[in-house]
Amino acid sequence: MDATSQAPSTALRIDRVRLAVLMAPKPGLSFEEFDSYWLNVHARVFSSIAIAKRNLLKYEQFHLDPKYDEVIAAQTLAKSRSPFRGIAIFEATSLDKIFEIFQDEEYLRVVVPDEHKFFDHENAQILAGPFATIIDKL
């Protein structure tokens, strides 16, 4: 290891937490309709509410790209096709800060009705916990 290299840190961050929602599209919606609406419409709706601006450190969307389906299927990593078409990732100083958003009056009044246009709550899955960055070249 040279003088400029550092061993990767494997410690979980204790100052932040992430919640990931595995996004299931609303039945009857094409992948393209789901993908475009989530990125171009819903992202603006969600990020406009005051509590999201106040409580979140980061909100990211991970969009699946169908052009990679065949490449993934040819690999031995996983053989089943995921019913999820993306992952919404919320980062805050605590899980309570994230859940405050989902209980907020403005979220319930503005964001939830928009979610029903493209997102299937019944088939989504949620994961939460601390994280460790192992490689980061930024």
Summary keywords:
138 residues; alpha+beta; 4-stranded antiparallel β-sheet; 5 helices; 4 strands
Explain the overall architecture.
- With 138 residues, the chain is an alpha+beta fold.
- Helices cover 36% and strands 18% of the residues.
- It is built from five helices and four strands, in the order E-H-H-E-H-E-H-H-E.
- It has helices at 31-47, 50-55, 69-74, 95-103, 105-115, and strands at 17-23, 58-63, 86-92, 125-129.
- A four-stranded antiparallel sheet has the order 2-3-1-4.
- The chain is globular.
- The model has no long low-confidence stretch (mean pLDDT 91).
Return the average pLDDT rounded to an integer: 91
Classify the secondary structure makeup into a structural class. Answer: alpha+beta
Strand content: 15-25%
Give the ordered list of helices and strands.
EHHEHEHHE
Total number of β-strand segments? 4
Name the overall outline. globular
Rg is 17 Å
Largest sheet: 4 strands, antiparallel
Biggest β-sheet: strands ordered side by side in the sheet:
2-3-1-4
Give the helix tally: 5
Low-pLDDT segments: none
What is the terminal separation in angstroms? 20 Å
> Helical content, roughly?
25-40%
